[in-house]
Amino acid sequence: MSTPHIAAQPGDFAETVLMPGDPLRAKYIAETFFTEIQQVNEVRNMFGYTGLYKGHRISVMGSGMGVPSISIYAHELYSQFGVKNIIRVGTCGGLHEDVKIRDVVIGQSASTDSNVNRTRFRGYDFSAAASYSLLEPAVQAARQHGARVHVGGVFTADLFYSPDNEILGLAASKGHYGVEMEAAGLYGVAADNGCNALAICTVSDHIITGEKTSPEERQSTFNDMIEIALDSVLIREKGDV
Question: Which end of the chain, C or N, has fewer beta carbons within 10 A?
Fold first, then answer.
């Protein structure tokens, strides 16, 4: 049973899927953390894999960049392949003075300049929020890892190269920890499908200080974030929350 963007069969995906933006990061996660790996998608080079992490079946697939791209893949995973939980694992720009590069930001909520959630909510404001059933075990896993973690709002931007950077200062003044490009869309798609979603991001660069990490580091490391996401799945499945 293929969709326009995913060539897979029923049962190929686990109930929980990690979604980095970069398909090569999906490949890295599968090869680094999974055993018994099966590649379940390669359409448009948007690689998807299912395997075992510490004996638990989990999938990982790229989402591409931006709200439209992750919305397509998340909708098809939720509606056609039996996926119940999607955890975005990606990068964000630091907005808050308390946030440092390589810190982990867990998006409890996601403000946005995109119109997608107003479209799905008939012009009204939609509260784009993470699923608490994913949020609580992720916070617990972060504490167990001893990571520098911030839990709160992120700002989902439609444009990477925006002509209006003042909005980022406004977002920071309202307590948003990071800026990224997918969470608000993912949370909306999850709500449409009665499923769960969460965004966990590593701070790859900082809007205030100008500090940044290399493209290579963004693609192939940030293992704290990945292990937090994976271990949160184990905590949730064991009921240790």
Answer: N
